[in-house]
Write a structure and sequence with these properties.
The chain contains 11 helices and 6 strands. The protein is an alpha/beta fold. The protein has a 6-stranded parallel beta sheet with strand order 2-1-3-4-5-6, with helices on both faces. Helix 7 (141-155) crosses helix 8 (163-174), helix 7 crosses helix 9 (178-190) and helix 7 packs across helix 11. The longest helix has 16 residues, at 209-224. The protein starts with a strand and ends with a strand.
């Protein structure tokens, strides 16, 4: 995967700090002036993972450029920094497939952490990515079995009413026994480190395996299939 980043942000102390942090984390940063032609040449030749763009004026012209990038470079992740943020901009953002947006002042460390996290989980399945982004730990076998079960239930919702058949299907994929799979998912969902996230998903600290899978799949459809841009200034 490319660890190349195009940074077309304005030259200031925030930008200098951001470039230093990104380079220390192994990224190759192309720090250029905001110039559409130069940006497009770099995208074609360097295949960047992320592009960072500033907005201060000419917002409609800028959004036209963003839409061009979306139409022609589907995998490119776009970060936008607003120097004069107006509340009406959000309607444009929802339609633009921007990954992250920020207002001044912004945290260079937060941007780098988000990029590093995204690259770390890039090779995971969509359900693994979804749970990790929502705070769940991936450090136990129960997590992997749970994500496999979510995938199977998304393909065949009848598994939600026939959990023994579900565990047998997971068993076929993983080579582990149905009993071990059910137990590991159950223990994973009882782990105190996941408790707040489970409450957020189900409304209750106690949940069954099938109830959690059903709620998690519904949350996935709601959040991931209607993606909104992330604001890194918000806590």
């Amino acid at each position: 995967m490319s660890k190349t980043i195009i940074n077309a942000n304005y030259k200031n102390i925030y930008n200098k700090m951001l470039n230093n942090i990104l380079e220390k984390n192994g990224f190759e940063v192309y720090d250029i002036q905001k110039n559409s032609e130069q940006i497009l040449n770099l995208i074609k030749t360097k295949n960047p993972y992320v592009i960072i763009l500033p907005v201060r004026e000419n917002f409609n012209e800028f959004m036209g450029f963003i839409r061009y990038l979306n139409d022609n470079y589907k995998k490119l992740k776009i970060i936008v920094i607003f120097y004069d943020y107006k509340s009406g901009y959000y309607d444009f953002l929802e339609d633009s497939n921007i990954w992250i947006y920020l207002k001044l002042p912004f945290s260079p460390i937060k941007i780098c952490e988000k990029i590093v996290q995204e690259i770390y989980i890039e090779n995971f399945t969509k359900y693994q990515k979804f749970l990790i982004k929502n705070g769940f730990s991936e450090s136990s076998s129960g997590f992997g079995y749970l994500c496999c079960a979510m995938e199977l239930c998304s393909e065949n919702p009848e598994y939600l009413s026939h959990t023994m058949s579900l565990y047998s299907a997971v068993s076929e994929k993983t080579g582990k026994t149905s009993f071990s799979i059910e137990r590991n998912i159950r223990y994973y969902l009882k782990n105190p480190s996941n408790m707040q996230n489970i409450i957020k998903f189900t409304g209750n600290s106690y949940t069954t395996n099938s109830k959690f899978i059903k709620n998690a799949l519904n949350q996935y459809i709601e959040k991931e299939e209607n993606i909104n841009p992330i604001c890194l200034n918000d806590e």
